[in-house]
Amino acid sequence: MAAWLLLDLLLLGATGVWVTGCGFRPGYDSLSTSPVPRIIGGQKSRPGEWPWIVSIQTQGHHFCGGSVIHSWWVLSAAHCFHDIRPQDVRVAAGSVTLGVGGVTRRVRRILSHPSYSRTTYDSDLALLLLSRPLPPGRGLGLVCLPGELDEEEDAGQWGSCFVAGWGTTEYGQERVSGVLREAGVRILDWLRCMWWMGALTQNMVCAGLEEGGRDACQGDSGGPLQCQAPRGSPWYQVGIVSWGRGCGRPQRPGVYTRVANYRAWMDEATAAAGRPLRPQQATPSPPKAEPGVTGGGGPRPCPWRPLGLALGLALGRWLG
After folding, report:
1. Where in the chain is the domain with CATH 2.40.10.10?
2. Fold of 143-261
3. Would residue 246 be called left, alpha or beta, if left means φ above 0 and alpha means ψ between -120 and 50 degrees?
4. I want to staple 219 with a disulfide (CB 3.0 to 4.6 A). Which of 60, 100, 167, 236 is the partner?
C-alpha cells in the first residue's frame, strides 16, 4: 500500500495525473462486474460514494457544487460566480459532511466560458484552477469526461444516472443540507423536455422523472450529473446542474449544461492556463504508436490504463 501511495505522489508531482484514473469509486464499483442498479431519491450519500464532488464555499458557507476533473481543476457552473472574486472562494473536497474532514483548497483563477449567457444560461460552465493540486487518496477521486455525443444518443447512452449535492431539500428553503444527498434520475428526451420547459439550447440536457420527485435544487448548482453506461463502465459527468423551474415538479426536470459539447474548450483553456487536462506529450521521431493508447478527442484516461506508459511519462518529465 505504501509503495502505491508513493507512486501516486510521484506521478502527481510530475504530471498532475492520478494513477487510479477517473470514474472509479473504491469500495462501490467492481472492476470485473457491474454494480447492482440502485434507484435512490433524496437519500444521504455514503463516504466515498461520489469522491469527485466538492463543496464550493465563500466565508465558510456552501453556495455551489463542483466536480474534480483533474488534480488542479474543478468543473462547476458559470452562474455560481457572478461578481465573485477567486480569492474569496474555497473548495472543500473529500467529505460528505460540510465542515468535517476532507481537504480544502483556495482558488487561483475562475475561467467562465466566454459564451456564457446570464439571460439564457447557455454555456453555463466554469473551470476553477486551484492554488495547489489535490492529493490522491483521502476519499478523493476524478470523474471522467465524455467525448462528443449527439443529443439523440443521450437518453439511450447511459444506464444509471445520479445527481448529488448539499442543496436544499425543498424549493424555497434557505438552509442547505449539511450532508451530501443523492437522487437517481433519468436523462430525458430533448424534444419532449423542450416542450415542457422551453428556452432550451443544444448545449443543455434534461434529467429527472416525468412524474417529478427527484431533482436538484438551490445550492446544488454546479454539481455533476454523473452517469454510468451499461455493463459497468466508469462514471462520466454528462451534465452540470444549471437551472430549472421549481424543484422536483412533474414535467419540470432539471436542466444541465451538456459537458460533451465543451471538451475542446476545456482542453484549450486549461492548456492556456499552464495546467492542461491532458499532459502534453512530445512527438517521437519516427512516430511509434503505443498499443491501446489514443490521443486527441474522446474521454480522458480511465481506471487501470497500462501503468508502464504513465510511469514512463512521469519519470521522463521528472528527470527532465
Report:
1. 53-142, 143-261
2. Thrombin, subunit H (2.40.10)
3. left
4. 167
Q: Give the position of cell 457491474.
A: 34
What pLDDT, on a 0 to 100 scale, did the predictor assign at position 198?
Answer: 84
Which residues are identified as catalytic?
79, 124, 221
pLDDT exceeds 90 at position 122: yes
Among all chains, which residue has been given the C-alpha cell 439564457? 120
DSSP string, 151-177: GGGHHHH-SEEEEEES--SSTT--SPP
CATH of the domain spanning 53-142, picked from 2.40.10.10, 1.10.760.10, 3.40.50.300, 3.50.50.60: 2.40.10.10
- This model's pTM is above 0.90: no
Q: What's the pLDDT at 199?
A: 84
Kindly report, residue by residue over 195-205, the tens digit of the pLDDT.
Answer: 998 889 999 99
Spatial contact of 207 and 225, defined as CB atoms under 8 Å apart: yes
Q: Write the CA distances from 163 to 50, 118, 193, 302, integer angstroms.
A: 10, 23, 18, 21
Whole-angstrom distance, CA of residue 317 vs CA of residue 171: 50
Lowest mean pLDDT among 75-84, 231-240, 288-297: 288-297
